[in-house]
Design a protein that fits this description.
Elements: E1 4-9, H1 16-25, E2 32-38, H2 42-59, E3 64-68, H3 71-75, E4 80-83, H4 89-102, H5 112-136, E5 142-145, H6 150-160, E6 166-168, H7 172-184, E7 191-198, E8 201-209, E9 212-213, H8 215-225, H9 242-257, E10 262-263, H10 268-271, H11 273-278, H12 286-292, H13 294-308, H14 319-334, E11 338-345, E12 358-366, E13 369-372, H15 380-402, H16 405-414, H17 421-434
Parallel strand pairs: 1-2, 1-4, 2-3, 4-5, 5-6
Antiparallel strand pairs: 7-8, 8-9, 8-10, 11-12, 12-13
Helix pairs in contact: 1-2, 1-14, 2-13, 4-5, 4-12, 4-17, 5-6, 5-15, 6-15, 8-9, 12-13, 15-16, 16-17
């Protein structure tokens, strides 16, 4: 069986050990010849690599692991590239969250002004990554992209690198499917879902198991409890932190008002924004929770290893994040035509949305990429919300390409999370100062 060369771009991410565990759990079906970690922060990557190498030692000691900050070394002849870059790291994520909150506006890493700030930091580094991969990698490579904000990245790459061999994915729909499966006592892999929207901005319309429609069961539970079950730690440790418990609970309130479809949890930032702000501590946001939680666990484990030569790998769970990206890669590698929710250019799949919108819908994943499944027409309320959000994403991409302050201001003003153009301008001006050196210059 052919063995693959796979590179993780963003090897210094705290998600890397979990992704590697997921890869090695499928080592018989998806064997690797070489695993490479690539990051522009070599010091951070080397620390994370200590854990990665221990994972490899336990599960696949024969696998060659290479860490590098050199793109030619990283990508030469690589067949798969898992991209998970975080430009500005968690210190800039903290600014994305806290600056809008100071103005009474949702502070979140992928939604609202914070998401647009993150997008402006990520667009050109992602284009640069694509260029490096195309220069050095196997011509039939695939980039499987987890880098956020995925909707903005997908829209930008459609314009800047339209021929890139990239598939943009997000684990949030899969995590939601996992919770729905727990609600009805089924394996998540047995659920087949219908869904439409943009990334972090969509709705589940139907859920079947073995051909039987289970949507009403999930809907009734969600109206009463959100997508919480009694013990969330048994569902997935990754999404059972206190802030995530709130997120799953908030689905209840959206379902009480709009019961037809089951919302992606991130819709709370657009539909329940005032409540979200009211219950958020501007001094301690999700960025702080991550730095004090997952990030601290990784670097504490590195310190422990340096002291004792031992590390407890059980704390580095796999979860749906790692499993999903591996499943997508396998479907690409072996033409499995598995059905997943991914981001694709609409091209009529959702009949009454713009043709060029980067929608998130079901698709069969083949060796030639995704084959979207047609959704048909969607109702007015959802269509209007999606068109507004798509206009926001399109404007922020145009702002980056054209170096346009006005279009960036338009994007923030149009965001459903921002109450007025006055607020949008105040937030934008402060974000410009905070992102000096990261953003394209806006004139």
């Amino acid at each position: 069986m052919h063995k693959f060369i796979l590179t993780i771009a963003g090897g210094g991410s705290t998600y890397t050990p979990g992704i590697v565990k997921s890869l090695l759990a499928k080592k018989e079906e998806f064997p690797l010849k070489e695993l490479r970690l690539y990051d522009n922060d070599g010091d951070r990557q080397e620390k994370v690599a200590i854990i990665v190498k221990e994972v490899v030692k336990e599960f696949a000691p024969e696998l060659k692991v290479l860490t590098t900050t050199d793109p030619e070394t990283a990508f030469s002849d690589a067949e798969f590239i898992f991209a998970q870059m975080r430009v500005g790291k968690n210190s800039m994520r903290e600014q994305d969250e806290k600056i809008p909150l100071r103005y009474g506006v949702v502070g979140q890493e992928t939604c609202g002004p914070g998401g647009l700030a993150y997008g402006l930091r990520t667009i050109y580094p992602m284009a640069e990554l694509i260029d490096l991969v195309e220069k050095y990698a196997n011509p039939k490579h695939w980039i499987v992209n987890y880098s956020n904000p995925a909707a903005v990245v997908a829209e930008a790459m459609k314009k800047l690198r339209p021929n890139a061999r990239i598939i943009n994915i997000c684990d949030m729909p899969v995590a939601t499917i996992r919770n729905m499966a727990a609600v009805i006592g089924e394996d998540r892999n047995k659920l087949v879902v219908d869904y439409f929207g943009l990334n972090h901005f969509g709705w589940f319309t139907k859920v079947t198991v073995d051909g039987v429609d289970r949507t009403d069961e999930i809907r009734k539970h969600a109206i009463k409890h959100g997508l919480l079950v009694e013990d969330m730690t048994k569902v997935d440790a990754q999404h059972s932190d206190p802030s995530w418990i709130k997120n799953w609970k908030n689905i209840q309130y959206m379902m009480e008002m709009f019961p037809d479809y089951i919302p992606n949890p991130y819709l709370q930032y657009y539909l329940l924004g005032d409540s979200i702000v009211e219950h958020t501590n501007v001094e301690h946001t999700r960025a702080n929770e991550v730095m004090e939680g997952r990030e601290k666990r990784i670097f504490d484990a590195v310190d422990e290893y340096n002291r004792t030569g031992e590390v407890d790998l059980s704390s580095f769970y796999t979860g749906v994040h790692g499993q999903f990206i591996v499943d997508v890669a396998m479907s690409l590698a072996y033409n499995l035509r598995k059905r997943f929710l991914v981001m694709v250019e609409n091209k009529g799949a959702v009949m009454n949305l713009p043709e060029d919108a980067m929608v998130e819908i079901p698709a069969y994943i083949t060796s030639d990429g995704p084959e979207p499944i047609r959704v048909g027409e969607i109702p007015t309320f959802y269509k209007a919300l999606i068109e507004q959000q798509y206009a926001v994403e399109k404007l922020i991409v145009e702002a980056a390409i054209e170096h346009s302050y006005t279009k960036a201001l338009m994007a923030l003003t149009l965001s459903k999370t921002v109450p007025s153009a006055f607020k949008a301008k105040e937030i934008l001006d402060e974000l410009i100062k905070a992102n000096k050196g990261y953003w394209p210059e806006l004139n």
